[in-house]
Specification:
Elements lengths: L2 H9 L16 E5 L2 E2 L8 E8 L2 E12 L2 H4 L11 E8 L5 E2 L2 E2 L2 E3 L6 H13 L14 H20 L10 H12 L6 H10 L2 H5 L3 H12 L29 H14 L11 H13 L11 H22 L3 H13 L6 H7 L8 H15 L8 H8 L1
Parallel strand pairs: 4-5, 5-8
Antiparallel strand pairs: 1-3, 2-3, 3-4, 6-7
Helix pairs in contact: 4-11, 4-14, 5-6, 5-11, 8-9, 10-12, 11-12
């Protein structure tokens, strides 16, 4: 047995819960499986919701081959695991307690389908990450461009359609939400999204600058000697530190976010500018922040905020008010920005596929995440064309 297979079963919702025997609870129900933490340190699934003995629990899920791995991996000494609400293991060989609380545990040993497990291992070994990678260049330009445009649009719809803020929020509140979320990039996107939802934008903006700094730091729960004991505080374990470069550390990004909150005017007049002017205006405002050099925004990070914050907001604004001009601007801004660089795009580059700009890199990210990663070749426009040849 391998732990990745347990991750796969949970992520694809393939665990036959009706066959499980309870270990330390009478009734059990999954309300939300959580988000798979595929690349960073910390629990395997974030923000899950389960019902144990009719009591709702919200937190993280950790998986191991044996429950005793919890101790072997020193999770009992790591604050990142304080919010684990469920331990899913192949073999439950040790009762695990955290702060005197017995962590609810599920044992899968008696419900594993070994034929399915063997097929999983075979497919894992023989299948490249992008199944059509070696054939991708044979796709006609017209077909490829059409699919890239379709995928980019689908990505922007997916990133903006399910956003729900407080009652009757303004467009400024949504702009604040999308931009705040962008500060977390991939690793800390979820905690920055949570931070955005915990901040009362207009109330905080009315405070003095020193109080804005103190309140935001207090909410994050990452800074010692809090000046304010804020009742809306997050759990410090939500922030991911492992595998993060110093420039992307959550502490540094939070401090940069505070400077952005304090000095950005949040005037939405820039939305009426041309795409290139929006980029220039946004970057000029950031470059004029009176901040220390150690917190300066690099050009690549400014692009990240534009790609993951400003663009989704403009796209959302266009859909909200049925104004195609904003939607077109959002997509044009991406065409003027350089392509991103990350591990997923490197997989495409290994097959000679090099996105020309951020619009293409966003599209390739969507294709990989929605089709390649899940091996949905028969649902993929490119896969269908290649398989028909």
């Amino acid at each position: 047995m391998i732990e990745k297979y347990l991750h796969y079963l949970w992520d694809k919702k393939l665990i036959p819960f009706h066959k499980l025997e309870s270990t330390n609870f009478e009734s059990f129900k999954i309300l939300d499986y959580g988000s798979y933490n595929q690349f960073e340190s910390g629990p395997d699934f974030f923000n899950a919701t389960i019902l144990l003995d009719q009591l709702k629990w919200v937190g993280n899920v950790e998986m191991h081959i044996r429950s005793s791995d919890w101790i072997r991996h020193k999770h009992h000494k790591d604050n990142a695991y304080n919010n684990v609400i469920l331990h899913v293991v192949y073999e439950n060989d040790l009762t695990i307690n955290q702060f005197g609380f017995e962590i609810p545990t599920i044992e899968l040993k008696n419900v594993i389908d070994w034929k399915h497990f063997n097929n999983y291992q075979i497919n894992l070994k023989k299948a490249p990450t992008i199944l059509c990678g070696t054939q991708f260049k044979s796709v006609t330009d017209i077909h490829r461009i059409h699919f890239l445009e379709k995928s980019l649009y689908a990505r922007l719809i997916r990133k903006t359609s399910s956003v729900s803020l407080r009652e009757d929020p303004t467009s400024v509140a949504y702009f604040f939400y999308f931009v705040t979320k962008s500060f977390g990039a991939k690793t800390n996107q979820l905690p920055f999204e949570e931070l955005a939802k915990r901040i009362d934008f207009y109330n905080l903006k009315a405070q003095k600058q020193k109080d804005q700094l103190a309140i935001i730091r207090s909410i994050t729960d990452l800074f010692e000697q809090q000046a304010i004991n804020h009742s809306n505080r997050m759990n410090a374990s939500s922030w991911k530190h492992g595998g993060v470069r110093p420039l992307n550390s959550p502490i540094r990004r939070i401090n940069q976010f505070i400077q952005f909150f304090i000095y950005f005017d949040f005037n939405l007049d820039f939305c009426e500018l041309t795409p290139q002017a929006i980029i220039s205006c946004f970057k000029e405002k950031i470059l004029n922040f009176p901040i220390a050099a150690s917190l300066s925004f690099s050009d690549s990070f400014q692009n990240t905020i534009l790609i993951n914050g400003v663009v989704p907001f403009l796209f959302w604004l266009g859909n909200k008010h049925e104004h195609n001009n904003f939607i077109e601007k959002a997509i044009e801004i991406l065409s003027f920005l350089p392509a991103e660089k990350n591990s997923t795009l490197k997989k495409w580059k290994d097959f000679g596929v090099k996105p020309k700009n951020a619009a293409e890199s966003q599209a390739y990210l969507e294709i990989f995440n929605e089709f390649c990663k899940n091996k949905k070749c028969l649902s993929c426009s490119i896969g269908q064309q290649l398989l028909a040849e």
